[in-house]
What we know:
Elements: H1 12-19, E1 23-25, H2 28-33, H3 43-49, E2 56-59, H4 63-76, E3 80-83, E4 100-103, E5 110-114, E6 117-121, H5 126-135, E7 138-140, H6 152-158, H7 165-168, E8 177-183, E9 191-195, E10 211-221, E11 225-232, H8 235-247, E12 255-259, H9 261-264, E13 279-286, H10 290-299, E14 303-308, H11 310-315, H12 326-336, E15 340-342, E16 344-346, H13 353-363, E17 367-368, E18 370-376, E19 379-384, E20 387-389, H14 393-405, E21 409-411, H15 428-437, H16 451-454, H17 459-464
Parallel strand pairs: 2-4, 3-4
Antiparallel strand pairs: 1-2, 5-6, 6-10, 7-10, 8-9, 8-10, 11-13, 11-14, 12-13, 12-18, 15-20, 16-19, 16-21, 17-20, 18-19
Amino acid sequence: MTSISGKTDIDWAAFAQRLAPVEIIDEPVLVKKRSRDFFWYSPILNQKLKRCFGDLVALPKTVEEMAHCLKTAHAADAPIVLRGGGTGNYGQAVPLHGGLIIETTGLNRVLEIGDGYVRAEAGALMADVNAALMVQGWEMAMFPSTQDIATIGGFVAGGSAGIGSIANGPLREPGNILQLKALSVEETPQEYVFEGQDALQVHHAWGLNGVITEVTLRTVPHLNWIGCMATFDSYQDCYAAGYAVATDDRIGCKLASAVDARIVEYFPRLKGHVREGKHLLVSLVPSTDMLSFRDRIAGQGGHLDLELTEDARKAVALPHVFEFAYNHTTLQVLKADRSATYQQIGGPDASDVDTVGKVNAALGDDVWLHHEFSLLNGDVVAFDLPIIWYSTEERLREIGRIYEEHGYSVYDAHTFHVESGGLKTADYVHLAWKKRLDPKGLLNPGKSRAWDLVKDLSPEDIEAKATV
């Protein structure tokens, strides 16, 4: 079998035979389908990545089968890309150099539920983990809006925050990731165990520096959540209400998302349920805190349009409220118009409502604001995931400069390099562990600019750069 990608000279038919008894997919159409994630959110990434494909897909169902895949790839010098649910937005699961795609969804068991934690295989769907937890009175401390298709390992490898971060912070906050297990890519793959804060050595590295096989995350008691939709006459009022709700000690929110009225027009499922032409605050509130929440919304000049228990939500056939938050908001717009895109913006002082208005006015009509509130190091912060009506890359960069002139940080959503996006700079601790667990550099090649500069150094010398 010749290379589908055209980038390897490996005999893939013989390689597939050596993978036995691991299930494989070699049908080119299916291989190409599994070579994609949600990179098409970005028109820039879409142009760069739409012709990048792997050559073969392996579907291991046990850690032993995963190790066999890694051993076989190591012997053949085959590039490897790990794929969970394929919900990443930056091409994390796209093979730039062809090679082997290892789909993790066969490793999907929930292994243990205990007092404040859950242990699961990396390919377990977040929704399945949450469902298993709720039976025993627990729930995930946070989860992505794509929980129905996102895997727990993929969330840890490529994600950072989600529904619940307003109460529990992002994944990297101490106590949220309790343990990770990862395999090395060597002649005989070895299992490494990362406890507590040491898990940050492989967290959010896009699968560059080890193959996560098992995840233990913090859980919190399951509450009776009410999905709330409140509307406001101005975006500043909507944002201010989101901040007020997030900082009110009487309200234990799991979600607070402020959404520009123009974006809400792309939510057809909400037609007739919320006031037309108004800015929207999406929240998840414990039933015990609803009286305080109602008072707060009224005090901020808002109108509470919807209060939905889970049974009420199902009765009116509405999606979960978190499907109108985080990057599900972007997806709702893209379903109707592919000329839209987004950006990731870190805010300055979250309480500074005036700056929100000033940057909104400076940006122009091709940028529609959408803020998420989160806890970070004990403080409430806000980050913007705006809808941007894409025209040129030059205009996209100009929008970034306008944000920066107002004190914001841009975490570029239009790059497939880990250093340019969420991390902004090289993480030499990650790269030192890549040298230890992936000495040949076979995992997700091309996704780190810095790797080529340090790959010939020892792990200790790479790690030393982190302190320079």
